[in-house]
Amino acid sequence: MSDRVYIFDTTLRDGEQSPGCSMTVPEKLKMAAKLVDLGVDILEAGFPIASDGDFEAVGAVAREYPWVQVAALARSNKGDVERAAESLKHAKRPRIHTFIATSDIHLKFKLKKSRQQVLDEAVAAVRLAREYCDDVEFSAEDATRTDWDYLEQVSRAVVAAGARTVNLPDTVGYSVPDEYKELIGRMVKALGDSAIVSVHCHDDLGLAVANSIAAVQAGARQVECTINGIGERAGNASLEEFVMAINTRRDRLPFETKIVTEHLFPASQLLSSIVTFGPQPNKAIVGENAFAHEAGIHQDGFLKERTTYEIIDPRSVGVPESKLILGKHSGRHALAKRCEDLGFGLNKEQLDTVYHRFTTLADRKKGVRNDEIQDLAREAMDETNAARAGLKS
Ligand code: KIV
Ligand code: ZN
User: In the predicted model, what is the mean pLDDT of residues 85-109?
Assistant: First the structure.
């Protein structure tokens, strides 16, 4: 089995569906440019039946980037599939992504349909989509809460109807890694080479990336994810976390993606400037503190050898440099380095003075700014110069 994992980016669809994240067509185009630089394999640009803006965005992205596979979402019904097909009319590499829920809870309360009805509608939607394009993906919404025998029956049926990718989403973020691995392993075995098994994990229990990794270990070869992990409720699997987990732990995760990792941080920053919020400061890979060190012991180790406290070189994900945060936990080594970076070559006595005053200041504040350190260093140097001048006169 090939170890290449396809990255299906749904920032512009599932990501955009979340509160505070809706995007205009020009904003989607701007973000799409970054996603193309990043090297995503499939770019889901919208849900055309949902709005004219989404319809337009899918077409615009497909026209602008003809070499990229562009996907449009559609429920498993004629109107949705035809609208998706229409939005992709000029696309060089179109994909229709059709979905229907398969769990009993969704069938009973949401769809009010029998298992047979849902199976028939899934097959009919895939057949119809195949009349418009060769590349059809089927998603069994709420797959992780679906009866496994029924899920296998639906998966086999949609593949027989022409789906090339079968996506088994953890729609409500309910699964845990060993369970998801078992489910995906079973479906990969059932479908063999006839289709790519894809995963799409939500983060309601904070397990979206862990579940995606478990799925890939079980044979899934497409991962659906978003920049900054945005998406419905707690979000989707974060693209940057999934990709960097694979890149960093290749010894345990022997998989390849085509992501150009140097674009990860710029992509995260761009998205933050478009939607209404950015990643939390302690977010892995792209958070403001992801490469920041404050504890004295950590700063000392880091200054001696970066890899003592960093498993990723920040430049490899497009972060310009690591940050040493000067606060009450910082040590003399980091302070000396910061004074040096700010242009102050202090002798031992001056550094002692600065360090003493710095710790007093840091005790009262959440962090000490560069201009405050400059003031302390200047003060210590002025005092030494004045003392020297006094000795001379
Ligand atoms: O979470 C989900 O199940 C989805 C599908 C439409 C793929 O977003
Ligand atoms: Zn989703």
Answer: 98
